[in-house]
Amino acid sequence: MSDYTHILKKYWGHSDFRPLQLEIIEAVMAQKDCLALLPTGGGKSVCFQIPAMAMDGICLVVSPLIALMKDQVENLKNRGIHALAIYSGMSEREVIQAYKNAAYGNYKFLYLSPERLETALFLEYLPAIKPVLIAVDEAHCISQWGYDFRPPYLRIAALREHLPGVPVIALTASATPRVQKDICDNLKFSKGYAVFEQSFIRPNLSYSVFMPQAKQTKMLQVLTHVPGSAIIYCKSRKHTLQIAQMLQANGLQAHYYHAGLSSEERSQKQEEWKNNKVRIMVCTNAFGMGIDKPDVRVVLHYDMPDCLENYYQEAGRAGRDGKRAYAVLLHDYNEVQDLLFKTHIKYPDAEFLKELYIQLMNYLQVPAGMGDSLSYDFDLADFVEKYKLNAFTTSFGIQALAFLGFISFSDHLLKSATLEFTLRGRGLQDFEKMNPNLEPVIKGLLRSYEGILDYPVTIDERKLAGFIKIPREELITQLNLLQQYQVVSYKPSYAGQQIILLKNRVYSNDLFINTRFLLEQKQHYEHRVSGMSNYINNKVECRNKQIAAYFGDFKAVNCQICDNCINNSATGLAAGDLKILAEKILGLLRQEALPVTSLIQKLKPVKENHIWIVLNFLMAEEKITVDKNKQVSVK
Q1: Mean pLDDT of 97-122
Q2: How much of the chain is helix, strand and coil, in % rounded to 5?
Q3: All domains of the chain, ordered by start, with CATH?
Q4: What is residue 621's predicted lDDT score, i.e. its pLDDT?
Q5: Is-contact 93 121, C-beta < 8 A?
Q6: How far apart are CA 587 and CA 579, in angstroms?
Q7: Which sign, positive or negative, has the C-alpha torsion 484, 477, 419, 425?
Q8: CB 456, CB 419: distance < 8 Å
Q9: Which parts of 316-449 fold into alpha helices (H)?
Q10: Among residues 129, 170, 124, which one has the least CA distance to residue 146?
């Protein structure tokens, strides 16, 4: 048994590695920079966690989401591995203590957001922390051509100047060839770096696409025929609640989940779903990243995703146990057009962005020439109301300002509650005697949190309420009362939005908007929408093969379990016959445009349903068009 297999067995309980895991681990141990492309549920974390366990030192893990960091740290702790995470909402004292633990304690992993890497505090402790490995999770976020580009990721490369010779491993589940190159370039991979790419085919996952007359009816039909745990993805928070209520009304156990819920609500819903107390999670894409639940039997998209990268990652949360699972996408006729229409809103013009930037700086009360690295809690609803703006266009405008490097925007910031006693000693004792109704809360705080009399500590309002045996709402009322009496300094937990300025406020005359960059982004977005549209409309090619080809994998074979494979098998139209018939149709149409009826007549004795299958295929491939009079012509 190798050292790596021994570590795998000891901490993870497995005797064998999954495909490519061992090769990736050996490359990292050879001090090579690596890009690992493994499907969702393919065991990406093990590829950097085991090398870190085998090395003498700590691994720095750059991760985009607080929930993802917390989940991985908790998983490591449950395996007896010491790990830390630093995220927004922690007090400065807590952050400093975490850095000291990373530098001088027996810790193997330190999880950070990319924004932390350039802070003075992090750079101050970095020489003492001495990372031996840097892992970049969700590495597609570093590419401006990726579906989830995050400008702060571009600053990760600067870390390498402080840590020469330390290997970097970048991990993602989905990246096109262009994005893969971007990841390696932007992370400044050294010569001889290695790229490991597992097949994008999920042989146990059956993909299907439907355009039903009633989505809710089709959804209920799928959930009735496929037993077991399920995820239903929706685009809006409002939809998650409505659909969950509809499922409950039909006797199905369902929770709804989105970024607007409190951290306590999200944690509770997530745990109940993971432990199979609730069968169905209806959610926005705020749910799923880092969720390790292998027995999900169906992932259903109630709304069409923006791109295949997103869809592949979300659908891939089904069937991680290797057993048969189903990825079902529902759509209606207008959804593709709606996505294309959004390009004008998603990528606004320079004049709109200049005006928005000025309004935003005024709203945040940032003086000209000031503000670099300052963070602000932000309320989009209040902002648009004050300036009489459209919420939809404003939201995309703020995202565009983030793309352009003016700001960093977090749409679901989570801050834990903090509390410190400002009244101590005899004064506190006298206050308890005069206010016996508040004594249980004071005693509960003192017994639950060491050091709370000396410095601010993070408190869990839900757990504290359980310890004192009162409702959470009543606890918060009492904590606010103690604040009013100046007994404590209390900052409640917060779930909302945050803006961080990445540079000082620019004077109006000096404000430059890179319109060329925005145009390139717009064109790439249109390309991604087109990829999603082709996937939906292509009723012939194997779904698994379509997805694999989108990511540059052209070696895939038919899965035999998607809707297209099953339908083509039923019609008796083989792949070779399809190509021959497609060439015949294109040959006829190159001579002249023809009505469908004439085309069918000319192709006799070919079956009419076979002709329609091939016509749909050619339309999805954008090789032909059919007008409203059913006249077919070559594009």
Answers
A1: 90
A2: 50, 15, 35
A3: 3-197 (3.40.50.300), 205-332 (3.40.50.300), 338-415+497-520 (1.10.10.10), 417-492 (1.10.10), 572-634 (1.10.10.10)
A4: 67
A5: no
A6: 12
A7: positive
A8: yes
A9: 335-346, 350-364, 380-386, 391-403, 425-434, 439-448
A10: 170
Give the closest residue to 229 by CA, choosing from 138, 291, 284. 291
What are the tens digits of pLDDT across the range 470-497?
A: 998 899 999 999 999 999 999 887 667 8
Neighbours of 367 (CB within 10 A): 9
Partners of 377 in the β-ladder: 498
Asked if the peptide bond before residue 605 counts as cis, ω within 30 degrees of 0, the response is yes
pLDDT tens profile 547-592: 999 988 888 888 889 998 888 776 666 666 777 888 888 888 888 8
> Smallest Cα–Cα separation from 422: which of 455, 450, 444, 451?
455
Q: What is the pTM of this model?
A: 0.72
Which residues, 6+ apart, have CB-to-CB distance to 187 below 8 Å? 33, 136, 139, 142, 156, 157, 160, 168, 170
pLDDT over threshold 70, residue 605: yes
- DSSP notation for 53-96: HHSSSEEEEE-S-HHHHHHHHHHHHHTT--EEE--TT--HHHHH
Q: Which parts of 153-252 fold into alpha helices (H)? A: 159-162, 177-186, 215-225, 237-249
Q: What is the pLDDT of residues 417-440, one digit of tens each?
A: 888 899 989 999 999 999 999 999
Q: What is the mean pLDDT of residues 504-522?
A: 86
End-to-end CA distance of the chain: 60
Instruction: Provide the token pair at 431.
Output: 């206050």
Task: Tell which wins on pLDDT, 455 or 419.
Answer: 419
Query: Beta-carbon neighbour count of residue 515 at 10 Å?
Result: 12
DSSP state of 628: T
Relative orientation angle of helices 44-54 and 21-29, to the nearest 10 degrees: 40
Q: Is the pLDDT of residue 79 over 60?
A: yes
Distance CA 282, CA 102 (A): 38
**AA letter at 609:** N
Spatial strand order in the sheet of 624-626: 594-595, 631-634, 624-626
CA-based max dimension of the chain: 100
25: which 2 tokens? 């681990």
Q: What is the pLDDT of residue 510?
A: 86
User: From CA 419, how far away is CA 4, in angstroms rounded?
Assistant: 44
